[in-house]
Design a protein that fits this description.
Blueprint lengths: L1 H19 L10 H15 L6 H16 L12 E3 L3 H10 L7 E3 L3 E2 L7 E2 L7 E7 L8 E8 L5 E11 L2 E7 L1
Parallel strand pairs: 1-2, 1-5
Antiparallel strand pairs: 3-4, 5-6, 6-7, 7-8
């Protein structure tokens, strides 16, 4: 009698797995359709990206704002380094040709850990500006963190919210 009970229990457990499996069975003629649907869903859910041209324009807005703030007025800084591409630095140098202190390429900086950056040309303190652009929002606006750094005690950031209007990026808010 016990043997029949165990056999019945074993049979019930063995067959219950067949009914509880929710995994979709893919038949050979359906593989291409499901693969295409999976690819389409992956493309639809992929995060939006800014074009390199738009990213440059966004950075220009943020760097322009930061360069106008004069974080360096209370220090003896001899350079402002922008942590971005050489082309972007050259663009900002052209937009701010008489900026004091001068805007320089980052490879002219000595960047000791947790200490004031040093201008290799003068051996004096310098400041570094960065712009960290996020992924575009649902409304195609973008959030950016603009940072300044001149050592552990002289550092900070602003949060920027920008949108594109008539082909130009504009700062909506700064916090």
């Amino acid at each position: 009698m016990k043997a029949y009970l165990y056999l019945g229990l074993l049979l019930a457990l063995g067959t219950s797995g067949c009914y509880s499996n929710k995994e979709t069975i893919v038949f050979s003629d359906e593989k291409s359709t499901q693969a295409e649907a999976g690819t389409a869903a992956a493309v639809k859910n992929a995060p939006k990206k800014l074009s390199p041209a738009d990213e440059n324009l966004v950075e220009q807005q943020v760097f322009g704002y930061l360069l106008g703030r004069h974080f360096w007025d209370n220090g003896d800084y001899t350079a402002v380094f922008l942590q971005t591409s050489d082309e972007q630095v050259e663009t900002m140098q052209a937009l701010f040709p008489h900026h004091v202190p001068p805007i320089k390429l980052i490879y002219h900086a000595n960047l000791p850990s947790n200490r004031t950056p040093i201008d290799r040309d003068t051996g004096k303190p310098a400041m570094v500006l960065t712009a960290e652009t996020g992924e575009p929002n649902a409304d195609d606006s973008v959030d950016v963190i603009g940072r300044w750094y001149a050592g552990g005690a002289v550092t900070g950031f602003y949060s920027f919210h920008l949108h594109k209007a008539d082909g130009n990026w504009q700062i909506d808010s700064v916090n």
